[in-house]
Amino acid sequence: MHTPDPRRTTAAGTTANGDTGPAPSAVSAPPPGAPAGDARAAGSPATGADDGDHPRVGWTEGEVPHTARWRSESGAPAPRRVVAGDDRMTADAAYKLVCEGTAVLWRGDYHNARQLLQAMARRADRKRPARKRRRGATGPATPVAGDQGAPDESPARAFHLHRKAQAQRARLLGMLLVPLEPGPDADAGPRVPLRRAPDVGAACREAWGAGDAAEPAVISLRELLGLIGAHEWRRKGVPIPALGGERVHAYYGVFSPVRGEYVDLVAEAPLPAGAPEVAFDIGTGTGVLAALLARRGVRRVVATDQDPRALACARENAARLGVAERVEVRAADLFPPGRAPLVVCNPPWVPARPSSPVEYAVYDPDSRMLRGFLDGLAAHLAPGGEGWLILSDLAEHLGLRTRAELLHLVDAAGLRVLDRLDTRPRHGRATDPTDPLHAARAAEVTSLWRLTAISGAPPSDTA
Ligand SMILES: C[S@@+](CC[C@H](N)C(=O)[O-])C[C@H]1O[C@@H](n2cnc3c(N)ncnc32)[C@H](O)[C@@H]1O
């Protein structure tokens, strides 16, 4: 099922299990002569405000106050204190500022800003003693960016500490900011008015929509790098072996089947008797499973999602893959009206609170989608039909859900298990012993649970 690290294409390269790693372009080593010089604290503290429509960020430069729209797809609040920085600023100075809660608005060379971000990331990642305490301090210790928990931590505590540390790292690194200006025309998307800056118009336009860059704005460089990375992923697409190697293209913020063992499970599971006329794909994302079912001969697939980007993305992929006539993509909270002989769902698999809106494909607070799918399934299955639940057991290895709890949910929903198909992740992370969640990842199995309604007469459709 999910690859241990199935990814959405997100601002910060969000991966499963809360790893919000920097965009790929932000991790290589800096060349000699990285930004030098002292902090050019050309401004004084300014507070972010909200103009009613969009949050704003404020700062002072050369004694002149400025404000701009604050852009954050990851939902980070506008920084309250901002100073300008340029190529003379050292990584130590920048890191000290952000640790003190002051963001740095970059005015120097774009590539130097990227190198500065890498240098700041190294500082954030530096090994620190786990949960260092002040002498005599009481109460819970504060995790630091490099804190991975003690070896004897319970998996659940190690997971929460890891997420906390990752969130802190993301917050610190998110405080290196770059300006955005409207491009030459409304459709071009914004531009970064810095020396050697790349063309970011298409990446921003894809994430935000056309025409949403009409005013000066400020964005974290880390998030901008994520947008650029997502644009590249979308352009290249992900080859899907079960679709004969054809590619699926994930929009920004839409769950990508980049590690797609779970897709193979859906390709291999026997279709319910009398190959279905119709199937539902609940939470379709890129539409990969809907397209696969159509390719397997299902004549009509109704694919739902709540995320407008996913809906647009699934429609585009269905068209590219030549199955648009068989795949109907519609906005719905879980199920479309009616019943089907086959209902497929690959819900987010970690029952924890997302730390930003783009994490909703991975984190399912209080197992809302999982419970909703199971509770509503019997009412949407045709007699003798099957529900295919695709679910990783990573949450079980992390101590966030037990197998007994899952089976209880199945039972309480009037369902029984017909069969289970399993797969193991093939990605490198599963075998990386330095990963703080290694034990859980190494044990992870993703399953396709074939479920059916217990009673011969399923409950009436309330949809
Ligand atoms: C883990 S992703 C799976 C995407 C796709 N089915 C796949 O297998 O690659 C979960 C998807 O469920 C969607 N989703 C979450 N809650 C939903 C709800 N209540 N109704 C419909 N879709 C939902 C998310 O937007 C996301 O696209």
From TrEMBL:
<feature type="compositionally biased region" description="Low complexity">
    <location>
        <begin position="9"/>
        <end position="28"/>
    </location>
</feature>
<dbReference type="InterPro" id="IPR050320">
    <property type="entry name" value="N5-glutamine_MTase"/>
</dbReference>
<feature type="compositionally biased region" description="Basic and acidic residues">
    <location>
        <begin position="63"/>
        <end position="72"/>
    </location>
</feature>
<dbReference type="InterPro" id="IPR002052">
    <property type="entry name" value="DNA_methylase_N6_adenine_CS"/>
</dbReference>
<keyword id="KW-0489">Methyltransferase</keyword>
<dbReference type="InterPro" id="IPR007848">
    <property type="entry name" value="Small_mtfrase_dom"/>
</dbReference>
<dbReference type="Pfam" id="PF05175">
    <property type="entry name" value="MTS"/>
</dbReference>
<feature type="domain" description="Methyltransferase small">
    <location>
        <begin position="275"/>
        <end position="352"/>
    </location>
</feature>
<feature type="compositionally biased region" description="Basic residues">
    <location>
        <begin position="124"/>
        <end position="136"/>
    </location>
</feature>
<dbReference type="GO" id="GO:0032259">
    <property type="term" value="P:methylation"/>
</dbReference>
<feature type="compositionally biased region" description="Low complexity">
    <location>
        <begin position="35"/>
        <end position="46"/>
    </location>
</feature>
<feature type="region of interest" description="Disordered">
    <location>
        <begin position="121"/>
        <end position="154"/>
    </location>
</feature>
<keyword id="KW-0808">Transferase</keyword>
<dbReference type="GO" id="GO:0003676">
    <property type="term" value="F:nucleic acid binding"/>
</dbReference>
<protein>
    <submittedName>
        <fullName>Class I SAM-dependent methyltransferase</fullName>
    </submittedName>
</protein>
<feature type="region of interest" description="Disordered">
    <location>
        <begin position="1"/>
        <end position="82"/>
    </location>
</feature>
<dbReference type="InterPro" id="IPR029063">
    <property type="entry name" value="SAM-dependent_MTases_sf"/>
</dbReference>
<dbReference type="GO" id="GO:0036009">
    <property type="term" value="F:protein-glutamine N-methyltransferase activity"/>
</dbReference>
